[in-house]
Amino acid sequence: MAEPTRGLLDTSVLVDQRGIDAGKLPDESAIAAVSLAELAAGPHATADAEERARRQDRLQWAAATWDALPFDEPAARSYGRIFAATRAAGRSGRARFADLLIASTALANGLPLYTRNAKDFAGLERLVRIIAV
User: Fold this and answer.
1) Rg for the chain (alpha carbons), in Å?
2) What angle do CA 35, 113, 108 make, to 5 degrees?
3) Do the beta carbons of residue 28 and residue 4 sit within 8 Å?
4) 79-116 burial, b for 16+ CB within 10 Å, e for fewer?
5) Is 30 in contact with 52 (CB distance < 8 Å)?
6) Spatial contact of 9 and 114, defined as CB atoms under 8 Å apart
7) What HEC string does 64-113 produce?
8) Residues in a beta bridge with 115
9) Is residue 95 within 8 Å of residue 119, measured between CB atoms?
10) How far is residue 14's CA from residue 11's CA, in Å, rounded to a whole number?
11) What's the rounded Cα separation, in Å, for the pair 130 and 133?
12) Whether the Cβ atoms of residue 122 and residue 28 lie closer than 8 Å to each other
């Protein structure tokens, strides 16, 4: 029997959760507090009432399902390495700030990062295992 998999889910996985084959996700998952922040902003980023309600439901579901991993001191230190790797890959370290904070959380917690947008994490593969789903 294979060891159970563990991983951090990127916000893109939370947003697209219904369209993802559960077999591609880790057995044990976590989310970053930064993802909750992105989800909390979501309802305010649309004028469409139905979409706003869907986004609010998604935020409440995520908050009720996981105890989010904080962006704490180890994650803050990891951010320096993530930022440097992003720059070394020729990318802007500020362009996808929330993504880099999520990757820093994964690095600090020793977890692979499951994402729908692997290209957003290009250049970080030596630090964090990026798993496209």
Assistant:
1) 15
2) 80
3) yes
4) bebbbebbeeeebebeebebbbbbbbbbbbbebebbbb
5) no
6) yes
7) HHCCCECCCHHHHHHHHHHHHHHHHCCCCCCCCHHHHHHHHHHHHCCCCE
8) 132
9) no
10) 5
11) 10
12) no
| Strands 28-31 and 113-115, bridge-based pairing | unpaired
* 68 Cβ contact partners less than 8 Å away, ≥ 6 residues apart: 30, 31, 32, 33, 35, 36
The number of CA neighbours under 13 Å toward the Cβ of 111 is 27
Strand order in the sheet with 113-115: 28-31, 6-9, 113-115, 130-132
pTM of the model: 0.93
Residue with tokens 């990891």: 78
pLDDT digits (tens, 9 = 90+) for 20-36: 999 999 999 999 999 99
pLDDT tens-digit readout, 47-97 = 999 999 999 999 999 999 999 999 999 999 999 999 999 999 998 767 689
Q: Which residues pair with 132 in a beta bridge?
A: 115
